[in-house]
Design brief:
By secondary structure, the protein is an alpha+beta fold. It has a single domain (33-178), classed as Umud Fragment, subunit A (Ribbon). The chain is 22% helix and 28% strand. The chain has four helices and eleven strands. A seven-stranded antiparallel beta sheet has the order 1-2-11-3-4-9-10. It is globular. The protein starts with 5 loop residues before the first helix and ends with a strand.
Length: 179
């Protein structure tokens, strides 16, 4: 039995680059993926991403993929008009704890290791940020629960992140960001 291949006859007359573009559009549409470019505002991701840098946002990426530790994610929270870009520093099942230094500053441990930003500086937690994560560590016995993520900026001293708003639900993560 011969298979009919009507598309092959049509594709002979379409330039190869256009065929690839159309196939990519069709695949992206099927996957529910929408790609946009956005400019980073603020310095909470510095030194990883400085203000003014353009990033590509893949909306819908996590509809088909699991959030991985270290992913740069785009989040939509009810308290913020604009989406936020943060780093997934701990994922469901990871162990986390705060370890207090003699000076009263606490360091965050994930799976037993002190968590550091992209410049190698340990994240430091004091005051309200320390209390916020302390409550979650106590209530969840030091384990990130299913459907929750620890999201941080790249500034070791903190930003608008899980140190201020607590663990983030999977539903607020709407995309993945990349250069």
């Amino acid at each position: 039995m011969r298979l009919r291949r009507p598309m092959v006859r049509i594709l002979k007359y379409i330039p190869p680059a256009l065929c690839l573009f159309l196939a990519a559009c069709r695949t992206a549409g099927q996957a529910g993926l929408r790609v946009e470019e956005a400019e980073v505002r603020g310095d909470s991701l510095s030194p990883l991403f400085k203000a003014g840098v353009l990033v590509r946002i893949y909306y819908g990426y996590y509809d088909k993929h699991e959030v991985q530790r270290g992913d740069i994610v785009v989040c939509r929270f009810s308290f913020s008009r604009d989406p936020l870009i943060k780093i997934a520093r701990a994922v469901p099942g990871d162990r986390f704890a705060l370890e207090e230094r003699p000076d009263g500053v606490s360091l965050l441990l994930v799976n037993g290791a002190v968590l550091e930003n992209s410049a190698g500086r340990p994240y430091e937690f004091t005051g309200r940020r320390k209390r916020m994560l302390g409550v979650y560590a106590r209530d969840y016995r030091g384990v990130i629960p299913p459907g929750s993520y620890l999201l941080l900026g790249d500034a070791a001293e903190g930003s608008l992140d899980s140190g201020r708003f607590g663990l983030a639900a999977r539903e607020v993560i709407v995309g993945k960001a990349a250069r």
